[in-house]
Amino acid sequence: MLRALSRVILQPKKAGLVKCRTEVQICLRAFPERSLCQSFYSVIPQKNATEESLFSKKLLEYIRGNAEYAASVKSLPDQSNFSSTVNALKGHQLHLVIAHSSELKPNFILELFTHYASEKQNITQDIISKKGLMSMVKERVFQAIPLMTQNELRKFAVIIRNLKFERSRYLIDIAGRIVQECGQRAAEVALEQCLHFFDIMLILHGNNIYRKKQFDIFISLFEYHTATATPHQLVQILHYISFAKKNRLSREYVHVLITKLEEVLEHLSFVDYGIALNGMFKCNVKLDKSSSLIKKTAKWLQVKAEQSERLSDLESFAFVAMVKVIRAAKYYDKDLLSSIGTFIMKSTVDTLQPEVIAHTLALYANSQVYDLEIFTKVESLVLQHLTNPTQTIRVKDISRILWSFSHVGHKGSDCFLDIIANVLIRSVHMGKLEFYPEHLSGSLFSMAVLGYYPKELIKEAFQPQKVEKLKGYQRSKQLSRLMALHQAVKIEVPEVNVAIPETHMNDLPKRTLSDEMLYRPALAHLMKGAIYINKSVGTSVLELKFPILFINHANLVFYPQRLKDLNDSGNFVLNQLTNCKAIIGEKRVAIEILDSKSLLNGSMDVIGIVKMKLRLMSQCGWVVHKLHENDINRFSSDEHTMGAFILDTLSKFKM
Prior knowledge:
With 655 residues, the protein is mostly helical. The protein folds into three domains: 1-11 and 41-64 and 229-407; 70-206, no CATH class; 513-651, no CATH class. It has helices at residues 49-64, 88-100, 106-117, 123-129, 131-144, 150-162, 169-186, 191-205, 214-225, 231-241, 251-264, 270-282, 292-307, 313-328, 334-346, 354-366, 372-387, 395-408, 416-429, 437-449, 455-461, 464-469, 475-492, 513-519, 521-537, 572-584, 608-619, 629-634, 639-651, and strands at residues 542-545, 555-558, 588-594, 622-628. Strands 1-2-3-4 form a four-stranded mixed sheet, sandwiched between helices.
């Protein structure tokens, strides 16, 4: 029945690195260079553990309050709602009854621990002062847990959670027994009860549930039951497995999930479907852009954008989840973007949350679509969020917005980047980016793409401790961007003298020239002609390379100086190159391919990072000739034709 899934084991954070943060309100008087004004910035640094836990709690409340879900129960009480009629004397009697009675009654245990949760008596003091008695009580609790009904087990989990069990070894052991009992019972019951037992574990451990070994047992059980799950049970399964985040599911199970979700789609609400898609996204389930599920998702999102005046918190969550999945699939839908654009234009700062703004803007950028009116409206909404003390915006979302702006080349108003820089500076000074330096490096790289270099932030980003934290899975992408930023700083603002700490190439994502040719087929066609030319002259005068270090976007480079000692008047190719050399001299020459991946949709304007690379190459003395991929494809029939096309291109270079 149980089939283990191979998954990535996520290691707990190192001791001392977990830090609870609360929402930060930043009031900052800023005087931009071009407009003297007083601004108040409200920002939260990232979706930290506290914030994520709060929204996860909201989702669980939605599930527990909806009768269609298996975990539907009345709202769980908070610690402030616990009450007990047990006085201190009766509490001591309960200890004795539990420890010595021949008849073990779970309700006595619930009554005793409710007494502790009501704060009428301190359990820590009793553990110390009544060590022997409390040890006996603990053993009796272990014996009573298997006798508890499902509802009693749930209530006991709530009580233990509200006693903040993580602070006491005594309570940690009890919580562990509850989790163990849930795993054992779940293996013997139907899916509905299995989901109930998983929810009991969630009560205790919340978002950290993936660290428990029973989590793997439940994943296997969910896989076993998925084919027969009801629509809302499937949503629960997808939500529950998402707690592992980067856990990789087997291909077979992914196929089952996608097929099943498409089958039950019509029975789900917008919010329910959003919860399901968010679970798939967190588990790295990527849909193909040609899949019918992606098309249905896009259509549903389009209808929601057309019919909505504003989005509730849960609708915003579902909206973002759908956008994420569509972005991951690299699906482009003109009608969808049009409807979302109309929705944005009629929205206000009170009706559109920053996270929705950030992800919808990124959908435009990923589709390589630039609409000046929409981006200007979004810029205005972002500024309103930043300058309104009652609104909050995450640095994570600021970073995503900056990436979208830089990708399509939207620089914004004169003071926009100044204000963003001031927000980030204040966050740095308050220590809010120590644990998430990738938001800082990502924001700075996007600013550099736009030609904006805030000196104080740049120096902060290159602090050794921040660079060190960028190493490792995923963050290594930001380390690569930081290295590219370092190159840009050296070229464009050399007065900002920053030294990058020693970094090994193994810490950076691997992107080879072979990868480039696979990703950009026109480049591979061009190389066929280059190889033919090199063979004809007997030396490598044409090479594929990355002209700007750490910007992994390759060019075909011509080295005329390598023709010095070659003398063969009968060689047509050599003669052509010699003529080119006479025109070019010692200049560095490169051919840039403009393809669908490097151009804005429907235009000849290059996207952000390519534009940045060309700008840096120009400042370094490169002469760049641009070719469109369609021109290359016309001459890609054989290496001789492509070689002739390259020679013709080089002969047209103008210095």
